[in-house]
Amino acid sequence: MYVAENFVSRKDRIIASAIEIISESGLSALTTHNLAIKENTSDGLLYKYFAGIDEVLVEVVDYYFRFDDSLRQTIESKNETYTQKLHDYLEAYATYYDNYYALSTLMLQYEELLHNIYTRERVSKYVTDRLKFLEKLFREAILAGEIIDKLTPEELANNMTGLIMAHVLNRRIIYKNKSFKNEIMDNFNKWLSLIKVSE
Predict the structure, then answer these.
(1) Range of the domain at 185
(2) Domain check: are 50 and 85 in the same one?
(3) Could you give the C-alpha distances from 176 to 17, 27, 172, 184, in angstroms and in order?
(4) Do 100 and 172 fall within a single domain?
(5) How far is CA 109 from each of CA 20, 23, 86, 120, 133, rounded to the nearest angstrom?
(6) DSSP per-residue string spanning the chain
(7) pLDDT for 108-150, tens place per residue?
(8) What are the C-alpha distances in Å from 123 to residues 48, 64, 116?
(9) How far apart (Å, rounded) are the C-alpha atoms in residues 97 and 42?
(10) Beta-carbon neighbour count of residue 15 at 10 Å?
(11) Partner of 98 at 20 to 30 A CA spacing, among 20, 59, 64, 172?
C-alpha cells in the first residue's frame, strides 16, 4: 500500500528536513551531518542529490518563495478593492504559514541569509519583489481613495512586513491558542482600519 510520503521525491524530503532543522535549531545547525541524521541516511548519500549544504540552502530559499509569482498574479487579477487585495494577499501567506509553520521561521533568518554568498542575491530579489508588490497595492489604494496618505506606500509596505515578522517571532516565543492566521488577520484588520478612509 502507498502512503503520501511515497509520492514525495527524496530531494523534496531533504529540503523539508533542512527547513525543520533551521526551524528547530537555527541556520548554523544546517550541516550535512545533521541533515543526514535527520534523513536517517549517510552524508555521502546526500551528495547524490546536492553538491553540498550551500546548494541545499539555495533550494530551501527557492522553496520558501516558490508561490510568490503565482500569488501576485492571482491577487492582481481579482476584481476587488485594493484594500481587499492586501487582505487576500496577507491571508494567503498566513494560511500557508499556519499549515507549514516551520517554513515561516525562515523569515527570521533573512539577515543571515543575506550574509551567505550563495543565497544573498536570491533573498534580496525575493524580498524586494514582495515589498515592491505591497508598495504598488498601497499606492493604488491611496490613489483610489481607499486609504489615507499620511504614510508613503514604501512606509506602509514596511509596516505590513514588520507586522508579519513580529507575529512570526512572537509565535516562536509565546504559545497562542489562536491560529497564526486568525491572530495576524485580526491585527492586520485593526491596523488597516486606522489608515482606511471612512466610508
Answers:
(1) 65-195
(2) no
(3) 25, 24, 10, 12
(4) yes
(5) 13, 10, 24, 12, 21
(6) ---GGGGS-HHHHHHHHHHHHHHHH-GGG--HHHHHHHHTS-HHHHTTT-SSHHHHHHHHHHHHTTTHHHHHHHHHH--S-HHHHHHHHHHHHHHHHHHSHHHHGGGGGHHHHHTSTTTHHHHHHHHHHHHHHHHHHHHHHHHTTSB--SS-HHHHHHHHHHHHHHHHHHHHHS--SS-HHHHHHHHHHHHHHHHBPP-
(7) 999 999 999 999 999 999 999 999 999 999 999 999 999 999 9
(8) 26, 10, 10
(9) 31
(10) 22
(11) 59
- The answer to whether residue 3 sits within a structural domain is no
For residue 2, tell me if it sits in a domain. no
| Contact residues for 19 (Cβ-Cβ < 8 A; gap 6+) | 60, 63, 64, 102, 103, 106
Are residues 132 and 80 in contact, defined by beta-carbon separation less than 8 angstroms? Answer: no
Q: What is the CATH number of the domain that holds 15?
A: 1.10.10.60
Q: How many residues does the chain have?
A: 199
- Cell numbers describing residue 20: 525543520
Instruction: Read off the pLDDT of residues 4-49 as tens digits, 9 standing for 90 and up.
Output: 445 468 899 999 999 999 999 999 999 999 999 998 888 888 888 8
- Clarify whether residues 123 and 108 are in a common domain: yes
1 is a domain residue: no
